[in-house]
Amino acid sequence: MDRLIVTGGRRLEGRVTASGAKNAALPILASTLLGAGECVISNVPAVRDVGTMLELLKVLGVSVTREAGRVTVDSTAVRSVEAPYDLVKTMRAGVLVLGPLLARCGEAAVSLPGGCAIGPRPVDWHVDGLRRLGAAVSLEHGCIRARTAGLTGAPVAFRMPTVTGTENVMMAACLARGTTVLTNAACEPEVVDLADFLIARGAKIDGAGSARVVIEGVPALRGAAHEVIPDRVETGTYLCAGAMTGGRVEVDRCRPGHLEAALSALRGAGAEVTAAARSVTVAAPRRLRAVDVATAPYPGFPTDLQAPMMALLCLAEGTSVITESVFEGRWLHVPELRRLGAAVTVDGARAVVKGCDGLSGAPVMASDLRAGAGLLLAGLAASGETALARIYHMERGYERIEEKLRGLGAVIRRERGRA
Ligand code: UD1
Fold first, then answer.
1. Candidates 23, 88, 110, 163: which one to mutate for ligand 1, based on the most atoms within 8 Å of Cβ?
2. What is the residue with the minimal CA distance to atom 31 of ligand 1?
3. pLDDT tens sequence across 94-138
4. Whole-angstrom Cα distance, residue 150 to residue 205?
């Protein structure tokens, strides 16, 4: 297992290009299972979770070719309906094949994603939604088994917005008989991107991006081409990096409109943020100031940017309160940030961050994808050397992160083969 060795204290300056959104690419790739015909998906990021999803599709019998950021998928012949544990255990989003397989083949068996570092993360609302469409779903030997003689459209009301839950039920409903109405649906841009792709394939979906989505089932979907939206979490991560190293960073080929809550938090912290249609620039203030942040479903502040934002606020003047309303246990980066000298205390869903004058490098460990990004940013701003272990978590979701940061002036090297 490789480590990243960061020599901190450099201002990050320059321009970096946003990659395609992992969280849009994953459901879009899973949704190719819904019908025969060739689909060409571009702007697919080269991150480990995408590799895992492509492996999973191949195991199911799908033909996959990948050339740079372009993936060609042909799901005409699906030969298995079982998503094996070995693939699903490393990536919760494996559960996204459940809805499409069930709708297309009448059955699906997906290993339960299992425990996750950031909390229990159940999939009960996915299952409830599919049951509402007429599926018989059981849990056998750690595996979700779903069967149907044909799905039927129905009203599905989510207790709380769930991103992959909305996506799973929306995909299944595309091939159901009749109309499905999702209420309290997730409004994330990644849900909209999936809906846009499905519509290009012949699905009838109305209202994606709002809390009420209406899907009228069609008998079959055809192949289509689609370009994945830019990654708003990656964009926000590089903006935090620029703001907390006293630098100036432009992220291009992004959609600033998808990260307004994050831009407003950065402005609240004193950073100068200039957004254009497809790019955004952050310039650091002389000293960052404290700002309170509460994560929430879109369009609220994204939970996936909570760790990077916390790293930034560790260096702000004053005390910030971060409220984590989406995943209550998402604080695994806190003890590691403390090793760098941060003053953070956690009480339930709230973290109190007392800003300090500077962090100092130390060995730290990433416990999940976004925690890893937060720690890497803290290392970039800290004095001296920070050795970040378990970077495979970060490689699940950030494309070429070392290279991109080096392009902004960061001093990072990879040390091979250490735990
Ligand atoms: C997706 C994102 C993840 C992001 C999260 C919240 C993907 C592949 N992943 O994850 O990066 O952090 O949205 O923006 O898109 N819940 C239940 N039962 C369910 C489903 C969800 O209790 O059946 C709870 C979760 O535990 C959590 C909340 O609902 O507290 C929201 O989770 P959800 O939106 O489902 O997250 P994911 O779709 O797993």
1. 163
2. 162
3. 999 999 999 999 999 998 875 455 555 688 999 999 999 999 999
4. 19
